[in-house]
Amino acid sequence: MGLGDSTGDYMKNFIRLLKFGLLEKKLSALLLTFAILSSVFEALIPLALKLIFDFLEKQAKTGFESFNSSSLTKYIILFIILTFSRDLVAMFTDFYSSKWWHKIGNTITEKVFNHLTDLSNSFYEKTSTGRIIERLGKGIADIQDILGSIISTLIPQVIYIIIAMFFLFSINPVFGLIVIVGMPLFVFISVVFYKILNSFQDRTIDAAEKASAVKIETISNIKTVKSFATEDRHSKQLRQYLNNEINATVSRNRKRFQMNALRFGVSDISQILILSIGIYLTATGKMTMGTLVMAWLYVTRAYLPLWWITQIYDNTQRDMISASRVFDILDTKIEVEDKKDAIHLSKIRGALELKGVSFKYQNRNVIKNLDLKIPEGKVIALVGKSGVGKSTIVKLLLRFYDPQEGEILVDGHDLRDIKQKSLRENIGVVLQDTAIFNETAYNNIAYSKPNASKEDVIKAARIAHAHEFVLKLPEGYDTVVGERGVKLSGGEQQRINIARAVLKNPPILVLDEATSHLDSENEKLIQDALWKLVKGRTSVIIAHRLSTIMKADLIVVLDKGKISEIGTHDELVKKEGIYNKLFKIQSGNYLK
Fold first, then answer.
1. How far apart are alpha carbons 444 and 376 in whole angstroms?
2. CA angle 24-25-27, nearest 5°?
3. For 562-572, b where at least 16 C-beta lie within 10 A, e where not — what string?
4. Alpha-carbon 73 to chain mean position
5. Which of 86, 98, 276, 458 could form a disulfide with 41 if both were Cys (CB 3.0 to 4.6 A apart)?
6. Residues contacting 372, CB < 8 A, separation 6+
7. Is the pTM of this model over 0.85?
C-alpha cells in the first residue's frame, strides 16, 4: 500500500483485515473483554494512590495520635486489588492472545495458500517464487501484528485516555485543557511524519522481496550457478538489494528521530506546565498532595497511550503495505475456473478433439484456428520447431489455460463444462521439467496414487526402469531424494516421473519430451516401457527426437501455430516437407 493508493483502497483493505480478526469470534470477544478490564484497572490505580496520599497528608496535619489504620488498610487493599487485577488480566491476555495470534495466522495462511493453488499458470509465469514466499510470510505476519495490536494495545490505550481525561478535567479544567491542546499537536506531528516514513517502507519491502527472489532463485538453480561460476554475480545482486533495504531503513529511522524529538517536546512541555501549576496549587493549599500525585500520574500516562496509539498507527501504515500485497494475491482473478454446473467425469474414455482452437500469450499468437481429432486409444505425436505451440496444446488439454477461440472436447464434452479435478485425475503427465519432491523415492512414485500397494509401486518402477537404480540408493525406496531431486541424475528423475504416470494408469497420457534427459541406452529402455504404457490408451506425445514417436498412429507437424503436415512416419518421410527435413537431420545422429 504505497502513497499513491487511494484512501478508499486503504480503508477497504483495512476493513478486510479487521474481518480476519472476527474469524475467531469467541477468542476475539474474550480478548476485547480483557482489554477493557485492563485499561479500567490501570486507570483506577492513580485514584487509589490519591486516597492513600490524602489520608497520610491529613494524618500528618492532625497528628498520628488519631491514626486510623483501618481506613489506610482499606485504601492499600484497594490499591493491591487493582494492581493484581491489572497484572492478572495482563497474564490472561498474553496467554489467550498467543493462541488467537496463531489461529488467525493459520487461518489466513490456509486461505491464501488455497487461493495460490487455485490460481492459473499465468500468475506464476508473471510472479517470481521469491516474491510469493516473501508476501506469504511477511504479509501474513504483518496482518497478525496489526490485528494483535488493535485488540491488545489500541483499545486499552483509548479507554485509558478517556478515563484519564475525565479525571484531569475533574481535578482542574486547566489540566485537561493543557493536555487537550497538546494531544492534537502530538497526533498531527505523528501523521505528517508517518506519511513520509511510509514511502521509505515501500522501498524497504520492495528491496526485501527482490532480495528474497535472488536467494530462492540462486539456491533453486545452484547447479547452473556453480557450473557457470556466477556465484559472485548473484552475490553482488543480493548485496545491492540488501543495501537498498538498509538505505531505505536508515532514511526512515532518521525521519523517525526528527519526529520523536518534536513529540517529546510536546509531551514534556505539557507535563512541566501541569507539574508547575500543581505544585503552586498544592503549596497554596488549593490542592491536596494526593490530588497532585493523581494528576501527575494521569498526565504522564496520558501521553504514553498516545505514543502507543501513534506507534500502532505507524506500524499499521507500514504493515498495511505488505498486508495489501497479500490482498493483491487474494484479489488475483482465477482465470480458469469451474463453472457452477460443471460435471464430474469419474471415468474418461479418452476421445479428444480440438475444434477451431486459437490461443495467444498476451499479444503473441501461438495457435491459430487449429482442428485436430484424436480418436480414443490412439497415439498422436506433435512435432515441430520450438515455439510452434506443441507444449501449449498440452497446457490446453490439461486446462491450464482456456483457448480464446474454439473448443476442446473430451468424450464429446467441452473441457470448460468439466470439473478440472476430474479431468486431470484421468490424465497422466510426464513433462519436460521433472517434478521431484523432497520425499522418499517411494513416496515420489506413489504421489499419483497414495493408496497404491507396495507391489504396484514397485511394478510401476520396474516398467519405468527405475527399480534398478532405486535399489542402489543408500536406503532403497526409503531414500529421501532431496529438494527437486538433487540426489538423482536427470535421467533418474525422469524415470521417477514416468513411474508415477505408470502407477496412475490413466485413460489419457501426455508425454512432453519424456525422454529428453536420458542417454541413448536408457532412452531405448524407456521407449520400450512407454510404448507398453501407451498401448490401448489415448496418448499425446511431444518429442524433438523422432525416434520417440516413429511408432505413433498419427504424427502432426506444426508450423506457425497451424498443422503443416499430418500422417504416419512412413507417409511423412516420403513427402518433401518439414518432417522429412527433420528426419534427414536426425537420422545420421539418432536413427538407424
1. 29
2. 70
3. ebebebebeeb
4. 57
5. 86
6. 353, 354, 380, 556, 563
7. no
